[in-house]
Amino acid sequence: MTMHRSLELSFVSLALALGAVAWAAPEGGTLKIVSSLPRTGSANAQTTTIVNGIKLAIDEVGGKVGEWTIQYQDMDDASPQRGNWDPAVEAQNANSASRDDEVVAYIGTFNSGAAKVAIPILNRAGLVMVSPANTYPGLTKPGQGEANEPMVYRPSGKINYFRVVPTDDLQGVQAANWAKDLGVKRVFVLHDRELYGKGIADVFKKQAEKVGIEVVGFEGIDTKAPNYRALVTKLKATTPDLVYFGGTTQSNAGQVAKDLRSGGYEGKYMVPDGCFEQAFIEAAGADNLNDNTFVTFGGLPPEKLTGRGAEFCSAYRTKYSADPEAYAAYGYECGRVVLQAIARATSKDRKGILEAISTTKDFDGVLGRWSFDANGDTSSQLMSGQTVHDGKFEFVKVLGQ
Amino acid sequence: MLDFEVFVQQLITGLSNGMIIALIAIGYTMVYGIIELINFAHGDVFMLGAFLALTLLGLLGMESWGPWGQAGGVATMLAASALFCGGLNWSLDRLAYRSLRRSSKLALLVSAIGCSFICVNLGLFWGGLPMEVFGGGMAAAAPKDFPALIPQTNLLGDSFIRITPADLLVVAITVPLMVGLTVMVKRTRLGRAMRAVAQDGVAAALMGIPVDRVIGATFFIGGALGGFASVVYALYNNTIGFQMGTRAGLDAFTAAVLGGIGSLPGAVLGGLTIGCVRSMSDQYLETRWTNTIVFGILVLILIFRPSGLLGAARREKV
Amino acid sequence: MRWRPGPIVILLGLAALVPVLDLLLPAAFALSEAVRTVFLYAILALGLNVVTGYAGLLNLGIAAFMAVGAYAFGILTCEIYPFQFGFWSALALTLPIGAAAGVILGAPTLGLRGDYLAIVTMGFGEIVQDVLKNLDSITKGMQGINPLPAPALGGEQWTADDERKWFYLLFVLLALTVLAVRNLERSRLGRAWFSIREDELASRAMGIRAERAKLVAFATGAALAAFAGGLSASLLSSTGEPNNYDFQASILALCIVIVGGIGSIAGVLVGALVMVGLNSIVLVKATAWMAAQGIGSQGNVLLSPNNWKFLIFGLALVIAVRVKPDGLLPPRLEGTRR
């Protein structure tokens, strides 16, 4: 008994001593940032630019914050069998990040559905997650999604999920208001039946009705169909002067544009930020978009950026010899928010960095100057509208002004 | 009046789409008829044909050619893609399927599924070629624009009903191919050999028919039709992508079964039916239910005609 | 006579040791989590094996029944619906619900021969997708239903963090499934299935009620698939998107059965390990490792390891059936050989 007791005591003192050593040790070591994005399959084009953005942010600080070396790991949440994000793989990524104590930030996901899987896992581990692409409002905003959202994503009761992109409920509203300004009277709303596309189309429709645009049709398309000629015939018979498509380049926004034009529809076409990339223009064919296609985006386009943003653009061009696109900017912003939080954190561990990210204030980013609000959303309401001219995106105006 | 015009327009759209489906379905049905393999890779062979066509178009700079030059360009693409897809399909048989002739049908099926994944990946690599037509290859996975060599302008002027040169192209290529193929299978030596092997491989071999060569020829012809279809598809839809084979294959397979798998006219009828059902469902119901309608009709037809629309009722070989 | 463990016992025994192995591996390479996915797919594939392996009915839409199970579990348990069953009762209910779905599809269509049935099952898979997406007032459409409860044992509520508990729960359920399927295989019904598979006409002549036996096989497969669906939904705490149960998932199940050895339980277990292992362990960990080592680049399509995944997966399938056309562990019993 005494023996046992003394052994226990010596263990305790040993542990205390070790703790003291660790505590007194000079700062430094390795901190890992991971991202979890669908890298296999059709989303690869977009996620590559996100990863490029993150890498650029890390390279800019020389892969170091103070004495700390920053390691970055690009995880794939897609599997070849699915060719798209795979819930089992996403859960696996989130769990393996949680288990690895060196991981202090999780950048992702691309799909809001994947976020629903990952957030609670990371939340229990107290690991901060910053998304460059999720726009489903229910992930953060009470009253926007299901009744139990977003609390279901916060089993620990604390917020660990943040996003640098404005949500669908903002962008859809701005898009509808812009349509009104453009003099639209009748709109036919299409969506891709995905979480993002349907979500933004629902908001657009509601706002359009509110501002007095007649919604003459609302249809969910089959994103794998070879063409939409039949749908265009139906749509044309309702004589809309705008077709709004809630969807992305991946979900066939280009083909829709093509079939609208080849089917003889001559009105306007509007799409959200999921299409704000050169790949959309290439997929649709510039001739089909020029001068009457409108694209909304949660931020300013690269060439309109000043200061921080302009530096980002030229750095990106130098490094990747391509123009930065919407997702590159979102990815870069995520990377910088995390790095800056690491620099500010009083303790360089998950708790400290989570704390630092949640208190991000007046961040001077490429998407504007913004803070994270109480829900974990960006306070930036800055939205811009673009058109396509001569095969290139052209800035038109800041929306809501 | 407009209602009637809408109906006619949907019929035209349905038939055009249906003919492309039918052309792919023939490849399925021929291979199925002869070795009872659902060739899952067929749709992806078709996809690669479209990538070859776009590559040629880019290399030769066809977009800047005059109208007659472009007609020649289309012919070049058709020939090249047909040869390429035929050869590829033949190679798949030679490399992956032939050694499994005596194994279970399901092992063969899995081999075909494997080939399909491989072809998809080749398509992804192909889309990453640093060529202008592939968007510089920066975004390998992104959909690729296929220039409209055949204009999509309305031949009927300002009328609501649209018939475009692209619609005519579909008819002008698919109909002769279908007719020619039917004649070939019915009349030629090779066609008779194919039918003999389909009936009973062992007996055919005993009668001196080189079974493996006949099967190889079937794969080649089926693939070649897929190659023709890929160019027609690309010129009609003006977009190609490395994952387009899955849906095209699924539609074609459905068409082949609907018409009675193994039957050439059945595949054509099945394709046209599916094309029209799709456009009518898009028009008169909702697009989001179109797949349900197509497969619902398929199930209903099969319940009442268990061997498809034109399939011969026969007992499965045991 | 000394008892010698068969391949099934060896496989399950090895699987049970994975969490122990994990203690020795670095955290990033911990396997037990991914092995849980293998267990889920093994249950699904055992269900498919009853339909396709035993009764010889090609089913290309098994994932649709998985969806039925997952959504049934979701609707029965989730706090946003009025039912709010517990984990165990809802999981138990996925079996009869899955079976009922199997009967609804099977009853009118089982008269179809081979590949006609295959396409009907594939079509059913597409229809289920559409229904789940489009009836969003009930199914929540693309949002999926969440959160879903984890099991509670002895008054203690688990969370997803109880990794080891989850692992052994799935392990035990898989072992029970194996036991049940093995008993079926050796029953009168099992013999009836084999006989129908080999020669339906002769079986009928011998007095076997082929329609009924086929329907039971179909319902059994559907029930097991639904069971796997319910479990996977609980494990993820979400039904996920309807797309998760698409044709591709059915194809994966089919590849498991055939690469492993159709008609063989041990084969299906090996198949699940190999195919799911390749799909969600080896390729995932390998590319993650390569990315961490700085191998590959984004600039060139050929240099990014992620871009090779389809090719490797496909090549593995082609080579597997080429080398072992009857599967890695084909059935040993004379009566079950094909």
Describe the 3D structure.
The complex is a heterotrimer of chains A (401), B (318) and C (338). Chain A has 401 residues and is of the alpha/beta class. Chain A folds into two domains: 29-166 and 306-370, Response regulator (Rossmann fold); 168-297 and 384-398, Response regulator (Rossmann fold, 3-Layer(aba) Sandwich), CATH 3.40.50. Helix content of chain A is 42%, strand content 21%. In chain A, the strands form four sheets. Chain A has a seven-stranded mixed β-sheet with strand order 10-9-11-12-13-16-17, sandwiched between helices. In chain A, a hairpin with a 4-residue loop joins strand 4 and strand 5 (84-85). In chain A, helix 8 (253-262) packs parallel to helix 9. Helices cover 71% and strands 1% of the residues of chain B. A two-stranded antiparallel sheet of chain B has the order 1-2. In chain C, helix 3 packs across helix 12 (247-260). Chain C has one domain: ABC transporter involved in vitamin B12 uptake, BtuC (Orthogonal Bundle), CATH 1.10.3470. Classes of the chains: A alpha/beta (401), B mainly alpha (318), C mainly alpha (338). The A-B interface holds A 41-45, 48, 80, 83, 193, 219-222, 224-227, 229-231, 233-234, 236-237, 249-250, 252, 254-255, 258, 261-264, 278-279, 282-285, 322 and B 2, 6, 9-10, 13-14, 16-17, 20, 117, 120, 135, 138-145, 147-148, 152, 154, 160, 162, 164, 166, 233, 236-239, 241, 243-244, 246-248, 278-280, 282-283, 286-288, 290-291.
